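Hi D.,

Good news: the full-assembly prediction came through. Inputs first.
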Amino acid sequence: MGARVIVVTSGKGGVGKTTSTANIAVALAKRGKKVVAVDGDIGLRNLDMVMGLERRIVYNYIDVIEKNCRIAQALVHDKRLKDHLYLLPAAQTRTKDAVKPEQMKELCDQLRPDFDFVIMDCPAGIEGGFRNASAGADEALVVTTPEIPAVRDADRIIGMLESMGKSPIRLIINRFRPVMVQNNDMLSQDDILDILSINLIGVVPEDDSVIKASNSGEPLALDQNTPAGEAYSNIAARILGEDIPLLPLDAPSEGIFSGLRKMFGF
Amino acid sequence: MPYNAGGAPEIRLKGTAFGLRIVMPAGISDDLLLEKFQAIPDQAYVLPVGTGVVLDFGPAPCSEYLIGKILARVIWPKELNVLAWLTSDRESAARLARAGFKSKEPEVLSASASAPAPAGEARTRTAILEYSLRSGQCEEFDGDVVLIGHLNSGAEILAGGSVSILGKLTGCVHAGRTKLKESYIIAGSFESEQVRLGDKFCVPSRDDSKFKCWKKPVIITLEEGEFKFREWNIEGRKLKTGN
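Then the structure:
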């Protein structure tokens, strides 16, 4: 049986598609699956940097499509997860018109026999880049942040994915801040699910270590000692069908000092 | 309404001023598309005299194979009157034009959208949509529309008559495009930034303390040129029966 091809998409930019792709790919690989993360963002590739593999790229999948190299030559092996994790980079010097959806579908079909999972990082937007990245996918993970514009764009993308026949389509809520939700300054998990009406696969809390990890090329899921890293690891487990409860995301209770300050008004 | 034979992707059927728009899904093989097209029951093509169907392929390519098979298996056997073959794929559009197919939007659509219905015209059928409309999705009908679902932000319903939404109305409704006098909008929960009735539009504000209907079930009508919002609630009331 071939790989499950999953596109990670959102519609809106900056919600964490690439971070989610890298971390889910790492978390699946850590669970013993053979995974390839494909950068669907031709011309604005970032997945290589988030995964810390940018210096090892020689060929990309445009070279594969144009028959300048074999697919095995374009795959970048992540040695931290030996024989389990690979990156298939996009071209940085080309545009999204360089490929057609049928070619991306063919590319995914070429990868299927050799992997358990193909995780496709989709560019923002609903035009050619989105259509290319999602053409070969069976399933979709839609990433949103708890902001109204991001949720509306996610809704648009979900409608398009449904009309393309992708199933299941599941939701990741990223950069969740329980304190803001408690203060009614942010959409709650229930608000978002009420609007989007799809199944939730995970909630990733806002975590400063995500920025450090992106800059250093060390995906958080490599080391689960952060809230976001643990959330991504749980998402990977749920993709594999495990029944893992959501992380407790209640706002932290106030400390003694804070309580005293309130009591005495300072 | 979406026509969904054997799971997704789906062919969508839309009632319009010129008859029926058949919207083909993207990312589906020619053979599967044909299979789904052939599975549409004959009742869907029962249309008023003088109307027809528009085949809308959107951005999807329309190959010679597909054109030939659609003609042989659907259009000719069902004796359909095809008003246009629409596609935004350049190659396909050129292919259709070379073969002499009409590839422009039927003009009757824009004419009837703004013109009032002639007096004594038979009532157009009500469209019942049993799903929610997501952002970017638009449904357009000549008659009344009942949506058994939500109209999400960024989605639209354009109707010649009245629009009733059983769920939340957060998107945009334009009702009464052809039958203004008797048209209204009903919503299970009103959360929209704009509603339109005929040639008038209204921008209700959730921050306006005078506007009491935000997030409440409402009936919206146009009376002497002014929008009227009435909250309705059937909880605790006995519905009157006919006898």
